[in-house]
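Researcher: I'd like a structural prediction for the single chain below. Treat it as a standalone chain; there are no partners to consider.
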Amino acid sequence: MAVDIGQMAPDFELPASNGELIKLSDFQGKNVVLYFYPKDMTPGCTTEACDFRDHHESFAGLNTVIIGVSPDPLNRHEKFIEKYDLPFLLVADEENKAAEAYGVWKLKKNFGKEYMGIERSTFVIDREGKIVKEWRKVKVKGHVEEALQFIKENLA
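Model: Treating it as a single chain, here is the predicted structure.
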C-alpha cells in the first residue's frame, strides 16, 4: 500500500516512548512530521534523530510535532532517547503496520542479501490530517532543514 499527497494520512495506534498508546489522529490541529527510519543507534538514524532534536524548537514554533517510527521495541527507543536527549516521541511499529500503511516497508538489498525493512521516508501532515509532502529514500544530510523550510513556506 502507498499513500499520496492530498489524501488523509492513514491513522494508527501504536505504543510510544511516553508510555502511552498514541494515535496519529490525536495530533489533529497540529502539523506532524512523521518520519520512518530503519533502526535506533545506527549512524544514519542517529544523525537524522539528532538533526530533528537540534531543530525541535523551530518545528514546535510552527505548531509542528515530530514523531519518529521504527520497528524497534520501546525499550530500545528509551535507550536511544536517553543517549541522544531526543525531545520528541518515538513509536514502536514492531509489526510494521504503520510502515505498510505508508508504503515504506520494502524489500531491501545489502551486501547481496535481500530482506524486508524500512525505506527511510518522511511525511508532512497538515492540521486537518492530510499528507501535504513526502520524501522517500531520504538522504539524511540536509533533510531536516528541507522539511523545516517546507513547513515554513507552506504551513506556517
